[in-house]
Amino acid sequence: MTGQVVLMKMAMGRYPAVDVAVPGTVLFEACSRYFNDGSAIAYVVGSAVSADSMVDPSNAIYIADLEETPQALSLLLVRGDPKRAIPAFVNPRSRSVVQSRPDDPAYVPGASCHVVISKQEIAAGNDQGRFRTVLEQTRGISRVLVKDFLTLLLKRLAEDQPDRFVAEKKRKRKREKSETVEYRPTVRFHPQMNGSLKRDLEEGRIGGFKLTRGSTRFRGEADEPAVQRLDVQLQARIAPTNDFSKVKRLVNHVRQTLKVISFESLNVELVDDSGRHMDSISTATIGIEDLDNADMRYCKTVTIPEAGDEAAECYSSFHPPTKKFASKCLQNAEYWNS
User: What is the pTM of this model?
Assistant: First the structure.
């Protein structure tokens, strides 16, 4: 089975906004601290994570393995998911199927994901201060889930050491009184965009976006006239940019401005500089509920070569070929050319 890794840049942040920079070493410390004491685990509740094991202790994500070197932090994340399909083995000759279900009910279907984060900050450019990151693509362990899990560990670190995370709150105006507040570190992952979208944005071939609200459901009885589709569109032109996140922020701003328009769905369509639909598959219509992850469709991916051994969906410790390949990706400058 051949898998893929996605290339991203990890960035540290803080909440609320305070006048201090959070170094990447804080994340490395939090991961090592809670892995070593056996408490690097969180529980998945819907689309969020929680430290409360009373919700469903079988639906969880945890650090199963960790290695820290002067160059990088490597993590193996394991997700237990009771809603995941049970693996099965098939014998085509006898046309029989055997489900792989353990006798112990404490076991649930699982998956694992290798994450390797460089410890060397990017020194210049738009990504200055960020860290190259390689994330194995794994069904059930998304970029958002990884981010939320690591953010929860950072929150715990801030709660365990409150005196350490105190800074002056950022002032919007110079006249505002200075205020010292507690804060917690956060983490974000920015996709390393593939060259095609970056070029389209920079050269202005993506000239704007359209927002469409509407419904495709039938109304009324079958023999009565009914509205099949009702659309309201807004089209906006944007200046050339190489940062898709800025487009996303602009879309969200327009959404808030037009929030009085209430229909059942909202799609985002990138258009060229004359307002026509982009023919490229990578810039197809984006559902608004997927907007937070929409830029992942433009994320650079690299295929993991066949290792010669039998691959598995889940490991309890690092899979050496996958970890080695992810580490090599960090060092391959060609993958990270902006």
Answer: 0.73
